Amino acid sequence: MLKGEKNLQLLTEPRRIVITTHHKPDGDALGSSLGLYHFLKKYNHNVQIVVSSDFPDFLDWLPGRSDVIEYPKQAALSSKLLEEAEIIFCLDYSALSRTNILEPLIAGSSAQKWMIDHHLDPEDFADLIYWDSKAAATAQLIYTFISDVLHAEDQIDADIATSLYTGIMTDTGSFRFRNTNAAVHHIIGQLIEAGARNWEIHEQVYNSSSEKRLKFLGYALLNCLEVIPEYNTAFFAISKEDLAQFELTTGDTEGLVNYALSIKGIRLAALIIDRTELIKLSLRSIGDIPCNEICKRYFNGGGHLNASGGSSNESLTTVVETFKSLLPEYKQILTSI
After folding, report:
1. In b/e form, how buried is each residue of 199-219, taking b as 16+ CB within 10 angstroms?
2. pLDDT band at residue 262 using 50, 70 and 90 as cut-offs
3. Statement to judge: residues 250 and 308 lie in one domain
4. Structure pTM?
5. Is 80 helix (H, G, I), strand (E, B) or coil?
6. Is there a single domain that holds both residue 237 and residue 316?
7. What's the CATH number where 66 sits?
8. What is the pLDDT of residue 209?
9. What per-residue string of b and e applies to 156-191 under the rule 16 or more CB within 10 Å gives b?
10. In the structure, what pLDDT confidence band is assigned to residue 92 with cuts at 50, 70 and 90?
């Protein structure tokens, strides 16, 4: 869906543009942001990427990463850029609250807001919306925005292709999730032709763990994993003491929830982490088990059918009990074949 198409004429001359994404950017958030960044630079726009936090170091190799401005480190510059922007791109989020500390700055800016996203239930804050909840990743939408909306597919070079490939790869679980359809594989083929070196991207993202992260993984599998076979459910509960013991950094718990889902017979998996200020949850599922509904109803969150997130102000123990207590409500769908 494209709304506000008339605003595209703003791109016919150089503009002051800021690209934003959600708090704690993942591969899709950063990949889509950098892909769009490299594209807009080709047309002499004054483009900056401003994020509200750090992000996993396994994304540090992405082309243009050194140009990303982290608000906590450069607050004055970030504020100035958002205040003076003519267009603010809002990538991989459909609610301003997901930008955390940047929310009031984006909301208060006189710039046009252009949202490109694939999450459910988008808020009505944008002047231009390019949205499709069936898209596998926001990076996929950046590709079609460039190719189908702006008709500039020939401008996709190796840096753009590498960034967008990374975003699609990470948000599809290396192309294994159910949203990985023929259209996604066609786009991936085009990105490889444009210069994305798929084997190198996989190596950078998935084979760059620190020794501490691997030791934490072993610890979590042995001590923090609970399996509830009567509900075909498994989850990890990670305390703040666990995080401190292994000196984990942003991204070190990425993908942990998938180990729970990989157990034979498991259809719903959760990662529940005490981040001190909040308890954060990541849910993954198989089939029609609605992670998004569970997160929305119980944990102030949402997302996709098979991959969603939420948070809580309660204690880790209370959140774990809440999660376990909701399982009987979903027993039929959890145990059906």
Report:
1. eebeebbeeeeeeebeebbee
2. very high
3. yes
4. 0.89
5. helix
6. yes
7. 3.90.1640.10
8. 83
9. beebbbbbbbbbbbbbbbeeebebbeeebeebbebb
10. very high
